[in-house]
Amino acid sequence: MEILFIDDDPSISRQAKSLLERIDDDFQVHTSTSAEEALHLLDRFEYDAVVSSNQLKGMDGIDFLRVLREERRMDIPFIMMTREGEEDVIIDALNLGANRYIQKEISSEVGYSLLAKIIVQAVENYRNVESLRKSESEKRRILDSTVEHVIYHGREYEVLYANKAAADSVGKHPEDLVGEKCYKVWGDEEEPCIDCPVVLAYKTGEIKYGQVQSPDGRYWLITANPVKDEDGQIYRLVEVSLDITKRKLAEKELRKSEELYKSLFYETPLGTFHYDNEGVITDCNEKFLDIIGSSREALIGLDMMNDLEDQEIGREVKWSLEKGEGYYEGEYKSVTAGKKSIIRTIFKGMRNEDGEIYAGIGLVEDITGRKIKEKALKEINRSLSTLIENIPGTTYRCKNDEDWTMEFLSKDFEELTGYVIEDVLNKVITYNELIHPEDRDYVRREIQKAVKYGESFKIEYRIITSKDEEKWIWERGRAVEYHEKEPEILEGILIDVTEKKEYEKELKRYQNQLEELVEKRTSELQEKNEELKSFTYTVSHDLRAPLRAIQGFGTILLGEKTEVLDEDSIDLIKRMTRAAEWMDKLIQDLLNYSKLSTDDVKLKPCGIQETVDVVLKQMEKKIKEQNAMINVKMPLHEVMATNTLLEQIVFNIISNAIKFVPQGRNPKINIWSESSCDNVKLYIEDNGIGIEEEDRVKIFEMFNRLHGVESYPGTGVGLAIVKKAIEKLDGKYGFSSTPERGSTFWIELKKAAGG
């Protein structure tokens, strides 16, 4: 036991040292003749107790004790020696934290025996209190480290103690909850709940478990454990509450955390190992074994501060355990395997919640190939530099400030602007000054807009070269770095597009010429259309008039002069009349076809049902003559078209379906439509003669008749009109056919809204 004895009389100090060490073999007494010297000794050495006289030269015993307790915060056992009649000194000493006091007149061995007992008792009491304090602190630290809410209740449900988790749940400090009612703090209730496990445990004296919902909607699993006194009476209760609302999530997160830890520790590409507070390896991953070239059995338990040949590693390990971090880089030879490697190791101290380092972790990287990588990196940098210099245009790096302060420019900049790169980098002239004054605001506005939204920018603007020439620049770039209170860094490329701009100018001139030419051709086309309309009128009136006369005269001859005409003459007149009728029909079909090319089309909603009804009404006589059966499946949808064109399409397809039927077969026609999101398909199915494979590409062409007039009369224009009309309506058409069994024609038009 180390004792520091202080008295300004050296003879008393020598006597005290001799007698105390003789009385108790465990004593080692160190002496001092002043409080100042004693303070110096306390800085250098550790003592178990201090015995000091109050009468000292310079600083007296009371001031000495005050320095120890108030300034240095030392709670070392302190025994004050006073003279008789110094009761006020005794009171001051005890108030300052002196453990005991003794009269100074103790020159006899009996007196020093008493002092020895007082010293032993004071030291033992101090050690017991310190042990208890550490035990209580450890218990509190354990309770505060748990996620469960731990609450110590009084008999009236008042909080005597709450751990940190319990206090955090209501946003308070543990000390603030002492004395509060538990049901008020956590349940926001005015009275205890009758089914609360705490209430039930107090009533029954047994441990109770229960699930309770708090006002914030969370569920808690509560364990209430009664505490009994020596007589078996309940006087306290311990409540442990666990938030089970997030338990599953916590378990899942814990598993993820454990897997992450295992992944980080055992599967990281770095060698990783743990060591305790003595520098002894306690665990390591496979990568560490591979780098060192050893086995786990050989490495676990290795003392890195004493067992390694390289003492620098031991120093860094010690430093990490003392200061928190160490670093080693060099060639290492394994003491367990003899393998040599160039390694880089970071030693990191691991701290507990009090900030004390209790162990360490090491990260090891084999950098034997680093030189090769450094050489490769230099080659990459050289290649990158070559690439930058050979990129067409000027690459740059600048600050996003008022001057566009340049930090890097490739060598093409001088050819582009005529200015020396160093002058721009040193701001002899800024890049902002090179931009055409009329374009500066535009450039700044567009770049800042792109930077704000984290996007790249592409802009064209003019610059003024050193020779006062105007050049057009195409620039592309983006912000690549940002530091708080510092402007962004922009990187990009500048390309001279002056020649392109000249081409665009020339192209604009050609476009203007083309527009004039188109306008002229449009005017000519309008004139041609007017001529075509005039021709159509001529054909419609002047050409058809003689045909109608021929038909009229033939009818008169056949009706009034048959008695004077022989059979050959009658047959010739009939042929002439039929030819005139056919010619009139052909002219009408041609007129309808030509109108499709000249008339403007304005689409509007048209009902297919109404159109089919109109067409069938027009063909009523022909349907009866052919004994045709028409089956219309409802509903028929609305499409975007014109009534005239839609009627022409439906008329010609149904007309062909009735006409092209084998002799002896009655026409049978099915009509239906199908609607999709945007379009409507109209189907017209017949049981006619069908279309041979080789004829399918011809049927929509003008005057392309597949059968003679004597078999199936017609002009050969009907399906050409269908094709032209559908094209005018921006639709589609098609068919499928089986010879001798019939055909199915379909058209597809845009669906009308609501149709």
Overall shape: it is elongated
Largest sheet, described in full?
5 strands, parallel
- Global Rg: 55 Å
Question: Which regions have little confidence, pLDDT < 50, spanning 5+ residues?
Answer: none
Strand order of the largest sheet: 2-1-3-4-5
Query: Averaging pLDDT over every residue, what do you get?
Result: 82
Helix/strand structural class? alpha+beta
State the separation between the terminal residues, measured CA to CA: 107 Å
Number of strand segments? 27
The proportion of residues in beta strands is: 15-25%
Q: Which percent bin holds the helix content?
A: 40-55%
- The DSSP helix count reads 24
3D structure, described in words:
Helices cover 45% and strands 24% of the residues. Helix 19 packs antiparallel against helix 20 (567-598), helix 20 packs parallel to helix 24 (718-728) and helix 23 packs antiparallel against helix 24. It is elongated, with a radius of gyration of 55 Å. The two termini are 107 Å apart. By secondary structure, it is of the alpha+beta class. Strands 2-1-3-4-5 form a 5-stranded parallel β-sheet, with helices on both faces.
